[in-house]
Amino acid sequence: MKIERKISIKQYKPSDGFISRYQKLVREVVIPYQYDVLCDKAEGAEKSHVVQNFINAAAALRGEDVGDGFYGMVFQDSDAAKWLEAVGYSLALYPDKKLEETADSLIDIIAEAQDEDGYLNTYFTIKDREKRWKNLLEGHELYCSGHFMEAAVAYFDGTGKDKLLKVMLKNVEHIYRHFITEKHDGYPGHPEVELALLKMYRATGEKKCLELAEHFINVRGVPLTDGGSFYKKEAEQRDWTVWGNNAEDLNYQQSFAPVREQSDAVGHSVRAVYLYTAMADLAAETDDKELLNACERLWSSIADKRMYVTGGIGSTGIGEAFTVDYDLPNDTAYAETCASCGLMFFASRMLEAAPDGRYGDIMEKAFYNTVLAGMQLDGKRFFYVNPLEVIPGVSGIAATHWHDKPQRPEWFACACCPPNVARTISSFGTYAYGEGENTAYCHLYAAGDVEFSFGMKLRCETDFPQGFTVRYTVLEGEGTLAVRVPSWSVNTSVKLETSNDTAAIKQGYAYIEAKAGDVVNLELDGSARFVYSSSKAAENTGCAAVQRGALVYCFEGVDNGGDVLSLILDDSAEISVGDAVPELGGAETLKVKGYRIAPTEGLYTFEKPKKVSEELTAVPYYTWGNRGENQMRVWLPY
Amino acid sequence: MKIERKISIKQYKPSDGFISRYQKLVREVVIPYQYDVLCDKAEGAEKSHVVQNFINAAAALRGEDVGDGFYGMVFQDSDAAKWLEAVGYSLALYPDKKLEETADSLIDIIAEAQDEDGYLNTYFTIKDREKRWKNLLEGHELYCSGHFMEAAVAYFDGTGKDKLLKVMLKNVEHIYRHFITEKHDGYPGHPEVELALLKMYRATGEKKCLELAEHFINVRGVPLTDGGSFYKKEAEQRDWTVWGNNAEDLNYQQSFAPVREQSDAVGHSVRAVYLYTAMADLAAETDDKELLNACERLWSSIADKRMYVTGGIGSTGIGEAFTVDYDLPNDTAYAETCASCGLMFFASRMLEAAPDGRYGDIMEKAFYNTVLAGMQLDGKRFFYVNPLEVIPGVSGIAATHWHDKPQRPEWFACACCPPNVARTISSFGTYAYGEGENTAYCHLYAAGDVEFSFGMKLRCETDFPQGFTVRYTVLEGEGTLAVRVPSWSVNTSVKLETSNDTAAIKQGYAYIEAKAGDVVNLELDGSARFVYSSSKAAENTGCAAVQRGALVYCFEGVDNGGDVLSLILDDSAEISVGDAVPELGGAETLKVKGYRIAPTEGLYTFEKPKKVSEELTAVPYYTWGNRGENQMRVWLPY
Predict the structure, then answer these.
(1) Cα torsion angle, B275, B278, B283, B288, sign
(2) Nearest residue of A to residue B398, measured between CA atoms
């Protein structure tokens, strides 16, 4: 079944463009700042203590008394892992001796914190070794291991250094012994290790990685022999909790049924897409059609019923979770940045099994809208939550809107999203390009040179997402070029420069045979369009949004007289492209005809509010909130 | 300052009409069913144990071991009190010997449960007398006392029997001794006793009642001498809680500032309006202009910024509370039935200080929409929560919508709303009519005869809210008739039958001198109209609702092809009156021109959804949910 695989990090060399500018930001601002945070040297940031936790864990292993030596969330370790992973990718593309030395020394510190039996987790090592593996519901031990496995592979790919890889192989041995050899029940409360084990398997060939990934996926949601759930039994067997999570809420961690029987995307949205990513990856790896069918159902549940137009997922802050079909509130959305990273991961694995434009479309949507919106344009502040409507005075203040901040915060105690954005941007090339047998897949448009394993070397030139022309030049070799034609591009031309025939398009991909010297030009549709949603999505009835290319736009107060709640779209009028805004990294505005509703007398009135024509200004959603606190709306009434 | 006072229950004798039909329902269905619940004899209802709690408390006072003899909420006693209050009103209007005997015997049981020092509360009497008065934050002791005081006055007014009144005077002595004589700090976590003490004061002339009411109002939100809050100190002094309420959330029980300094309606909405009711009553009673100013600010906060078009208040289920200005989500509204009863109480007290149509308008709006919607048309099921949009599959299911049920439940463990509706309907006359010096105030239109203290006897004939003609005949005496002219009545005629001159209207009231034999005809505007809301209320931008007279309408699936989410109003068209619906108690539908949006391909699309003309059908909001589970919407896009 496997017909396509992501390229590895070093196969893509970015050239100057939209993506490389973001990667530069990650390299020059985000990675150094995050390292300062990990070391508690960043001014204004909340205390992290991550590095000190590892130092203290090592001391504890040596038998020293470190007292109350752990600080932070139970999954605090993962902040270091995600940082190392981003560094691995960044070093692959942009070697940096000093950064590599810093990372090497952090890896040394981490290695010291590994127990002699291979266990690696500072929370339990420092606090209470007796509690290891006794609270899979909340303990995040496998989650942290997973992130270190991802980091180990990325760092090996980026630098060729395998110290962390060896640490994690030893950790795999430990996990294998506990769950397989010693037959302990259980599976991770927060899926992550499954997808990481599959990466480890590919990087090392170690079969135990594959076996463990399969094991955790296969036992998930399967009732114990007494018919009950693992988490409930586990909770009954201990007299402590981390947060008091409800062991009976089986939706929360997607354990309400065996994974092959699941159809609705439910529960904590990051957990969900991390799990589905591994499921899709394993299905492709092992040609497991039943598992792939479940993935397709879960994909459809998200894409067709539970996803915001921005590629955000998770409709509620209560459990940071999916809710039910078509429940997509704009103002109280959770739409966590991490969840949209995870949706990209899921999409990239679905593409491995079937190169279908639907997956690429949403991978692109999630990246250019919610993932990028997660980061301030200066790389210094981050949204965890990405609502589609923000009203200062309500957002972040009302109990129902506490999580929807009108401005990006600096750094959270729970620092999951910033490093997730960093690692996703740094490894963008691996999502953009894939390779099958003699086929070069171009899922996303990323300027740079790609070396495919089958011998083709390809150059991509584009200003996407701001420009709509993509030029592919085959520099060396030959094969099939499979170029995604996005569903938003209503009028598209894709052809060999030497030909007049537009290539045939199959399931969202144009397939063109090409050899060294050939040039393939993709002309995408740069028209801005109104977007409408199904009337089943109650929040958006009578409303439209605006999209141009991959970018969904929004209306901010700063461009619209301070008040976007009184705006009405005239969706019969043309949308025109406005000026590039320097403070928004040169992003272009869109100009839309519309109206402004005059203020009413009182809260309710029989008088139909007067409306006055006004030219409305929209900016790309990913740039919102970069010019101070103000109102923002994606959907406007028409 | 006091220029108007509610009439007492026996001054109004209903004649056959809309109100008397509801009172009949309360008398024949609600009161008997609720009594069965109190005695744990109602099939299908959750266990109540109220009567048994009193029996057990009496036994405990006699020194018997009743073990774990209390069941229910900490405020379970109040269910009996609200039932007795409704019975008192009902007996005043419709004598019923058997019901009176039943109530008498319940009063005997309650009296036995009073401690010899006057304390009356089964929760603490049974569970732990040592904990009395140590948790005002959560304990509801004063709340329950308040409800028994209201019941005592109502039962005395209705039957002339004063046994419960004497019990409650002894209880007042106890409370006075604790809080005034012995100078214990503190005030009720749930306001209620304040308004009840003012009723007791008027019924008995006992000055301690007035003094206590003033005391609790005046100390509320005033920092202790060390600058801290009472609730925080109280919480520090005990090692137990009832529910673990946050003693530092001073908004929740309106104690964030002294009441005279409060301006925004915040916190638990029932607590809020019960407090404001007492504040307004005390302000009128004591001519306290500063307190009245605070009431006017709080009124404006509700009426101009924090109230649904249905007269519902409380925008969130989190704390059953107000949130912030203009945050009025339709689908996740709390809008508790009890809170709209409380808003009527507040309005009726504001009218005491100043007969201004604004108060009468909202008293009417709250009653005919949210209060009545709280009860199934057969009197057997009740909404606690009154959303303005319901979607089966989301409402009552999604974590954000758990409280918004698509169908009225039978009886809750927390049975606050059903008896509140019952007592409000039974005492409707006291809200409808008031009297000042030689002036007969007609705030609401209620068919029947009223005897005013100054000698006028007035007959009112009307089919309101279904009809729009109100005919007042002075049967005896003379004086000024002050008839409210509602703001929704755009074209109104109000005049003596013998005159051609429409009366002058001052602040929403037409004042007409009338004597025995005079007839005053009020012709209200029965046109149905579209309602628009301020664009500051983000939920309703681009939408309109439909109103006719006092009744706000809604669109239900059952009348509109099963799907109201795809409906669009044509607000340029006339609204016509449709048929009366027998299953809805003869309520008339409204017919509105509009469109239905065709289903889209997928969740999001660039294709503007096609729309097809359709005649839309609306029914009065108070009747919704009486024909099975279906979609409902008050606001539709236009």
Answers:
(1) negative
(2) A323
